[in-house]
Design a protein that fits this description.
By secondary structure, the protein is of the alpha+beta class. Helices cover about 20% and strands about 25% of the residues. The chain has a four-stranded mixed β-sheet with strand order 1-4-3-2. The chain is built from two helices and four strands. About 25% of the residues are buried.
Length: about 80
């Protein structure tokens, strides 16, 4: 079962993000205030579909309707990336 970790106020380190998603990170820009951090190689590694992350990305038009997010993801404020 895949998960979404929600981060509101703490800027995670690159190592923390990579550990949580299980590989090299990719940023999915949802909107002006939020991003998803996912495993860049999630599909290649045949990780399971993350339905909740896919819904977030699809609703925000960050991915095409026939695309999906694979593996665990982090949902966080976009502003935390700039700190």
């Amino acid at each position: 079962m895949t998960k979404i970790k929600v981060i509101r106020n703490h800027k995670p380190t690159l190592a923390e993000m990579q550990e949580w998603v299980g590989g090299p990170i990719e940023i999915v820009w949802l909107n002006d205030t939020a991003v998803l951090i996912i495993d860049e190689e999630g599909k290649i590694k045949n990780k399971p579909v993350n339905a909740k992350a896919t819904i977030h990305a699809t609703r925000n038009k960050a991915i095409f309707n026939n695309d999906w997010i694979a593996g665990d993801a982090i949902l966080m404020k976009r502003s935390l990336l700039d700190q």
